[in-house]
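Progress report, Aim 2. The chain analyzed during this reporting quarter is listed below.
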Amino acid sequence: MQSPALFPLFYLPPVSYFSALNQQDFNVELEKFEHFPKQTYRNRATIVSPNGALNLFLPVVKGSKFHTTVKDVRISYDFKWQRLHWLSLQTCYRNSAYFEYYEDDFARFFEKQPEFLFDHNLEILDWLLKQLKKKVEFKFTTEFLKAPEGTADFRDRSLFKSDADFPAKPYFQVFDDRNGFLPNMSIVDLLFNQGPQAKAYL
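Predicted structure tokens for the chain:
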């Protein structure tokens, strides 16, 4: 029998997020009604650059940071963050083994302008799971509630920020000759460096 689990929805989630999904067969509910928390992976991703870890911030419309349910948070296009993110990804992963394999399909997320952060993140997550050959049937919360007894709650903002809860063995990364291995980067780091082997790694 599947165990129920509550998950937040992130932008280009870290490897630890997928490690949590992979721990067991969860009956996953994605949280839609929490108040949008600041300084989390809901609108931030971390990739590997020549100078170490690089954070990519997805801006939201002013006012979304205060008591707005996450499903209602709107993406801001006041500056060209999509171009910045895509150029950063190209610069950091152009020499990785599999970037060109995923590039054309992945680029579409940086070309259109969805209104809501939740919808954008969900579309990316669906794409990532397909690349990882992992089937997860999502449900969505209908209100914000404390996790019922027996439910795994992954909504805590302190989770997924380090590799401590989901320790990972090193894999080859671009720039590891400069940085060494950087754990718990965005899943795209694993995907662009390991390609189809990413599923086996998780």
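Helices lie at 15-23, 81-93, 99-106, 117-131, 176-179, 187-194, 198-201. The longest strand covers residues 44-49. These observations will guide the mutagenesis work planned for the next reporting period.
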